[in-house]
Predict the structure.
Amino acid sequence: MTIRNFLDMEMHSEAIHGGKGLCSHGTVFDGAEIQGPVSFINHTILPPGASFGLHKHGRDNEFYILLRGEGVYHQEGEQAQVKQGDIIMNAPFAAHGIENTGSEELELLVFEVTL
């Protein structure tokens, strides 16, 4: 049995996919630990004004679960306002990113499912 509390995990600061600002980021589970099509589960916090730069993946769906905050999600030239409670599914091969446009931290769980 494996149980991890993502709120207690060590986080490090990094610019994610060339985005703006430094985000706090930690890997809850990596692909080597998971038996199945999930590649990773990450916990990430974007301070106000920070973003994930636009980037693409391959044959997978990447999900953003918004735990706290608000922002703008970008995918293939479109954008949408997002907030706490939203779950975003990034389409395979689509350029996507997210930006914290709010005044508080934007907190996410991110995971990728290979198709």
Q: What stands out?
A: The radius of gyration is 14 Å. Residues 25 and 37 are 22 Å apart (CA to CA). The chain has no helices and ten strands.
